[in-house]
Amino acid sequence: xxxxxxxxxPGFMELLPNEQIxxxxxxxTIEETYKNFGFLPIDTPIIELSSVLLAKAGGExxxxxxxxxxGDTDLSLRFDLTVPLAKYVAKNYANLSFPFRRYQIGKVYRxxxxxxxxxxxxxxxxxxxxxDGELSLINDSELPLVIYTTFKKMGFDNFTIKINNRKxxxxxxxxxxxxxxxxxxxxxIDKIDKIGEENVKEEIxxxxxxxxxxxxxxxxxxxxxxxDEKIQKLEEMQIDNEMFKKGVEELKQVVKYIRLFGLPExxxxxxxxxxxxxxxYTGTVYETFLNEYRELGSICSGGRYENLAENYTDKxxxxxxxxxxxxxxxxxxxxxxxxxVNKKSISDILIIPMTENMEVPLKLATDxxxxxxxxxxxxxxxKIKAKMKYADRLGVPYIIVIGDNEIExxxxxxxxxxxxxxxxxxxxxESIKGLLK
Amino acid sequence: xxxxxxxxxPGFMELLPNEQIxxxxxxxTIEETYKNFGFLPIDTPIIELSSVLLAKAGGExxxxxxxxxxGDTDLSLRFDLTVPLAKYVAKNYANLSFPFRRYQIGKVYRxxxxxxxxxxxxxxxxxxxxxDGELSLINDSELPLVIYTTFKKMGFDNFTIKINNRKxxxxxxxxxxxxxxxxxxxxxIDKIDKIGEENVKEEIxxxxxxxxxxxxxxxxxxxxxxxDEKIQKLEEMQIDNEMFKKGVEELKQVVKYIRLFGLPExxxxxxxxxxxxxxxYTGTVYETFLNEYRELGSICSGGRYENLAENYTDKxxxxxxxxxxxxxxxxxxxxxxxxxVNKKSISDILIIPMTENMEVPLKLATDxxxxxxxxxxxxxxxKIKAKMKYADRLGVPYIIVIGDNEIExxxxxxxxxxxxxxxxxxxxxESIKGLLK
Lengths: 437, 437
Hints:
By secondary structure, chain A is an alpha+beta fold. Chain A has two domains: 283 residues, 2-Layer Sandwich (BirA Bifunctional Protein, domain 2), CATH 3.30.930.10; 86 residues, Rossmann fold, CATH 3.40.50. Helices cover 40% and strands 20% of the residues of chain A. In chain A, the strands form three sheets. Chain A has an eight-stranded mixed β-sheet with strand order 1-5-6-11-10-9-7-8. In chain A, strands 13-12-14-15-16 form a five-stranded mixed β-sheet, sandwiched between helices. In chain A, a hairpin with a 2-residue loop joins strand 3 and strand 4. Chain A starts with 16 loop residues before the first helix and ends with a helix. At the A-B interface, helix 1, strand 1, strand 2, strand 3 and helix 4 of A face helix 1, strand 1, strand 2, strand 3 and helix 4 of B.
């Protein structure tokens, strides 16, 4: 019979079970943190009508979309969780309570050119808070707490949540007569980490900006100091522009409430160079960096937007949200050895019968499972050597071997597979459970 | 601005948050039960190469598949979790321990004609045990235990796992010279619940089967009595066919080990009319019915197969597995009021500030969250009436209102939203947590 090569598509992550256990654990940590902050779950289809999904999209995004016909229907796979959220909120508006706090964790699809670290199928872990008509600025301060708590629970300490406000940027460019160049200038500034200040200045000058104006921009992005000092310097810049002033005031308020929520000073900062995309965000913006691994880029980003669902409804629905790209983050964590694939087994214990009398081992398995001990029985009729090899490869923390002697004496040895240590106890579920760590 | 109607495709389940909470809880119960039996998680892509996914498929399945090109690549969405498992095991053979016990819970896609209760996107919750070359029959007895435990944990009591063995059926039809008609006969027998014995007999006769042979078939499917009586009557049938005898012996063994695992007699039975599909299964087969809602059909099915991955590898990989179609089951449970969408909130408590001083409410929220209490703060600047309306609609079990008095006296009332009862306590996280149920 002709065999087909069992291939997985490039750009699609497919993990071995020991890696999957770890991935699922991190995903669960994120989900539990989102729930801890009272976010509600939703689960939208992966396939949507192209007319719905692409009501707004264009340019680069549209090229990447998996789009196809089924019968006469023009369908697309979702490329993020924000557009489906907009559809969901517009569709279910009458049945939702606002502010609507939702989380969604799911796969999204982008037909990127395949390259290392780029995924075509990847998990996004999103939260958003959607207001009906208006939404308090304090929500902008709560999300950094969610980011902080999530990464702390994932085991990170040394990370920084960078905060900025798009009104400050837009107001500044308006004030210095560079509104039309603002998108391009922000794009250039975004590269400052990679190309340095001198190159940024040079590229800005190439846009036909005067030396004086370029100097103001450089002065602005070079504002340094503590969070409070930066805000003070912004206020002192005396930019005569309402939007700029509003942005500074918002930033000041967001920082104030971030502190009231108790976010440590070490884990956030004002960073005037971050802009997050080009037209979606209208206020607070966030990026998050691992300080020792800046090369990973932002591992959690988001911000405030004016109007979530304007393509679907006349209702004004302002919101603020963040997203973690988990698939890429996980692959980088593996690559950098930030996590260890040491837990190989879902089972807490493996029962190895060495007897014809299966009644005792099978009943014990059921009893242990009923005590919430994840339990597996080796059921194959093999030599003890093969059975032990299976236990080793499975990476199960404890094993017990049950032979006729053990049954007769109602006694069993529990072996800790990590230390090799053996402890004897009664052959019953309660006693055995008591000896598991 | 022109608005797009925010539609979701027919055949794609999209729940409101209160329904989603319930769905997620059931999904989690299933996952935890699968883990309790030591199954390992895998997560395969939703998109695969058509050449890989359709290596075996044909007929009805192929017509339903979502298949499309991206660039020059012929892609398909997975239509079950079994073919991806076969690919996965063949691909990762060297890195897996056998027997390989895996679970996978994920969405699959079938472009069925849209009709009530039929889904085009739905969750399957699968477990399979794959052997390398061989696999002990005791595994066939463990899966009914997993089915039993799963449905018990979901709150069901009155359900029956029906067990049969394909070898018995195939052997019988071979013995009575109806091997070529066997597929058609099994299809007819499958309808006995719907059309009754007389119609079954009539349809069988129409195949050109002799009256005597038809009588043997009817006698066979009418075998009644307890599980043990049925097995005894099978043995007494004196069918002179090796496969039949092997099937009866396997069934007998499977029943024996099912009892050793401790499955209650009430929850399983031998049913000689179930056949499960037409060519995939080769031994034990399972179907599961809610006794009071037989019209739902089987809510958990599966069986034993000879060779999982013959399209991808020369390795012989026998296995046994089951699958729960969760999306359809959930929609039926809702429809029949088997579950109540009463829990509306992920939050355990909602803090409602009635003060300008946000320091205390925000700090309390952080403290409660750190004690694993899911906590939400109402952050909008609204009148108390609007705030209470939000609390009501959210369906949160407890609220506390924090005004300047509460802060001054360091005292707060916790209101149980179900009973209306109010209890006073210190305004601190530990005391408040102690009063939550």
